[in-house]
Design goal:
Length: 281
């Protein structure tokens, strides 16, 4: 009876609902592709993120949407699904204590300092890294920045933000690295081309078997993304990051991401910063 009512309600235009079974199925799909763990508490959030797309496709149920994804593993719809399922919250100089550590590290290392920002979202994090390095190194800085989500990468590459987004920058940083809009665009700023040119954006899924990047790195930022992954994915990533870091290189993680895995050649060096140890031959 209840199921019949639900089915009837679903067929009415605009009355889409997400069942637990559908949530688990969609959760399994995003986990397999992106490593993101979806639990049942996120039901409302997932409904809000996907319902518009399901309606756009004129599908009546989330089951039909899951069927579509499963039966076409290479379809562009997959990217739309992934983009909808990611959480992209970020800001300039987020977890600000990392940036003086990065600056000091870059100052002490030989030339050709390379950084990989692995979950760059809309670009605020790689820009903060590039600004920090520009002030220390002046030239020759190189930041590789990647994300799985193509929508955020497009925004990052455009380099346009609200003026209020850069309020935590000092006047010199605002003047050196941003252009202020005028007229109707007064509330917006654009990253200056010279800074943007130092950041190489590309799409990378952290779950992929290989990452097409010039290695090794002096520093890797992987902040506020591993919280969405399970322990085995986190461990696999940490092992791979450790291999990509030069000895003495730094791994920056998010403030709520703590790792104490004795098998890893990574030693906690400060609050959410790990150093790649020399490994005995
Ligand atoms: C909450 S944001 C964090 C942004 C930034 N690192 C920060 O700390 O401000 C998480 C980002 O991780 C990305 N992400 C999620 N799963 C991913 C995966 N498997 N591979 C690469 N990026 C992923 C999301 O698209 C999102 O932009």
């Amino acid at each position: 009876m209840h199921e019949n009512n639900t089915t009837a309600a679903r067929l009415l235009p605009g009355s889409l609902s997400l069942t637990d079974i559908e949530l688990i199925r969609l959760g399994k799909l995003i986990y397999q592709r992106a490593g993101i763990v979806v639990n049942t508490q996120k039901k409302e959030m997932i409904f809000n993120r996907l319902s518009r797309r399901v309606r756009e496709l004129k599908l009546n149920t989330f089951t039909a949407y899951a069927d579509l994804l499963e039966s076409h593993p290479e379809q562009p719809e997959w990217q739309i699904f992934i983009n909808a399922m990611t959480t992209n919250l970020t800001s300039f100089f987020r977890e600000a204590h990392h940036f003086p550590i990065l600056a000091e590290h870059a100052r002490q290392r030989p030339k050709d300092y390379r950084v990989w920002c692995t979950a760059a979202s809309t670009g605020e994090e790689p820009c903060s890294i590039a600004i920090t390095l520009d002030q220390v190194l002046g030239s020759g800085l190189r930041v590789w920045a990647s994300d799985i989500d193509t929508d955020v990468l497009a925004k990052a590459q455009a380099g346009i933000y609200r003026f209020s987004d850069i309020q935590m920058l000092n006047q010199t940083q605002k003047r050196l690295y941003f252009l202020r809009g005028s007229g109707h665009s007064r509330e917006y700023v654009k990253v200056k081309p010279a800074l943007l040119a130092n950041i190489h954006y590309q799409q990378i899924n952290l779950l992929a078997d290989s990452w097409p990047l010039p290695q090794p790195f002096d520093a890797i930022f992987c902040r506020n993304v591993m919280i969405y992954f399970d322990f085995s994915t986190q461990l696999r990533l940490l092992e791979r990051f450790a291999r990509l870091l030069k000895p003495g290189g730094l791994l920056f993680v998010g403030h709520s991401e703590h790792f104490s895995q004795p098998t890893l050649p990574l030693q906690l060096r400060g609050q959410s910063v790990y150093e790649r140890m020399e490994v005995a031959p």
